[in-house]
């Protein structure tokens, strides 16, 4: 209880929850096309690969724009960056509601929705800069749990589209919550007085010369990329493989998404306790086993449980990665959040394309999920390799690093 109080007293609660709200509603908007794709396909017939491309484009846009918002967060501050991001999010919502009249135009809207996904690069530095290193995992985990906004998308998008008889209306309705959050965020969120000095654009290149930066990118490419990619694709998977309706497929996707969303802060919290590398070893192993199980395409109840547990591992892994990042790159957290977040977005972009392309080629999802399982296994091996090197360098200088290394060698 004492430690819990010290966490809440060590930072700024209104900003923490402001960052969560901004990230949450942005994630909802970013993930709308995932569940809606099944309904949209009724108006614009698509091949499996075209469906995969549609739900992957917002992730690609988010990956690119995270670098932009990451630099802006560092230079002009995460609060103003977040406000700009919310205002620009209105553009694809208005276009999706009033402008789209063809699949090519819908692809444009899908790409522009990436600005909502780029919210990560502002929300996490805004929250994390208020908290000391010993509470970074939990603080970043709580703010990052805003990826639970995907739950709102999968739960309500298809229901609203069915109720109003139009998927375009869903884009218009999404304007209401983003405006409300913009007002509340503007009132309550504040930049940390301990915010690091702005970095130059050239320092992106300096960071990318460091091998550890690429390792964190690889870690997050798998955890976050796996999570967001599955969030956007599972409705299509359940509809195609198990013949579920658009609403029912999205409901089951919601159940799986909940695991990944709400276990992100748990992953950060446990990483604070036992060390980020140890947590990632367990989580990648769990994700590998669950995804391999899904590749056998078992009965629906079984595959739901496996995907729930697999998404739980990936979501907790997101929190664990960002327990480690501030320890290694504390003075460049704004830049690193953008870089690592962009890598995660690229992973999320690739996942639907892998599943869609292999399904088109083999008329089965088995090869796709086998490949995803092997990627998780390779990530686990990378963690084991890197922790032995980090243990004698920067990780040994962190209290959590010492706990991590001793637990691994005992």
Automatic annotation (TrEMBL):
It is a multi-pass membrane protein. It comes from the Bacteria. The chain crosses the membrane at residues 21-42, 54-72, 84-100, 106-126, 138-157, 169-192, 213-236, 242-263, 275-296, 302-321, 333-355, 367-386. Pfam families: MFS_1 (PF07690). PANTHER family: HIGH-AFFINITY NITRATE TRANSPORTER 2.3. CDD domains: MFS_NRT2_like (cd17341). Residues 15-391 form the Major facilitator superfamily (MFS) profile domain. It is found in: Cell membrane. This is NarK/NasA family nitrate transporter. It comes from Paenibacillus cucumis. Keywords: Membrane, Nitrate assimilation, Transmembrane, Transmembrane helix, Transport. InterPro entries: MFS, MFS_dom, MFS_trans_sf, NO3_transporter.
């Amino acid at each position: 209880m004492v430690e819990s109080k010290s966490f809440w007293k060590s930072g700024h609660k209104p900003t923490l929850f402001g960052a969560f709200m901004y990230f949450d509603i942005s994630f909802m908007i970013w993930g709308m096309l995932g569940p809606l794709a099944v309904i949209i396909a009724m108006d614009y017939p698509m091949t499996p690969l075209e469906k995969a491309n549609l739900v992957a484009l917002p992730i690609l846009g988010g990956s690119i724009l995270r670098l932009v918002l990451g630099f802006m967060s560092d230079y002009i501050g995460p609060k103003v960056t977040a406000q700009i991001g919310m205002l620009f999010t209105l553009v694809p919502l208005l276009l999706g509601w009033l402008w789209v009249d063809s699949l090519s135009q819908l692809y444009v809207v899908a790409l522009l929705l990436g600005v909502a996904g780029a919210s990560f690069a502002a929300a996490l530095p805004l929250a994390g800069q208020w908290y000391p290193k010993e509470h970074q995992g939990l603080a970043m985990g709580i703010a990052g749990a805003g990826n639970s906004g995907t739950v709102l998308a999968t739960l309500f998008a298809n229901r609203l589209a069915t109720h109003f008889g139009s998927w375009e209306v869903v884009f218009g309705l999404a304007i209401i919550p983003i405006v409300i959050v913009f007002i509340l965020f503007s009132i309550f969120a504040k930049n940390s007085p301990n915010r690091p000095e702005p970095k130059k654009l050239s320092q992106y290149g300096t960071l990318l010369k460091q091998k550890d930066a690429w390792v964190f990118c690889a870690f997050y490419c798998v955890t976050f990329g796996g999570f967001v990619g599955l969030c956007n694709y599972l409705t299509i998977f359940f509809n195609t493989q198990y013949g579920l309706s658009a609403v029912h497929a999205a409901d089951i996707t919601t159940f799986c998404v909940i695991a990944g969303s709400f276990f992100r802060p748990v992953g950060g919290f446990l990483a604070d306790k036992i060390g980020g590398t140890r947590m990632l070893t367990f989580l990648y192993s769990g994700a590998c086993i669950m995804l391999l199980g899904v590749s056998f395409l078992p009965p629906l109840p079984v595959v739901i449980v496996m995907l729930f547990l697999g998404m739980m591992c990936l979501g907790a892994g997101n929190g664990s990665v960002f327990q480690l990042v501030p320890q290694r790159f504390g003075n460049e957290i704004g830049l690193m959040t953008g870089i690592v977040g962009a890598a995660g977005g690229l992973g999320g972009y690739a996942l639907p394309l892998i599943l869609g392309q292999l399904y088109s080629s083999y008329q089965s999802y088995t090869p796709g999920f086998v490949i995803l399982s092997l990627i998780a296994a390779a990530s686990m091996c990378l963690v084991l390799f890197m922790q032995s090197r980090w243990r004698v360098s920067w990780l040994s200088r962190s209290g959590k690093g010492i706990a991590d290394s001793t637990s691994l060698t005992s």
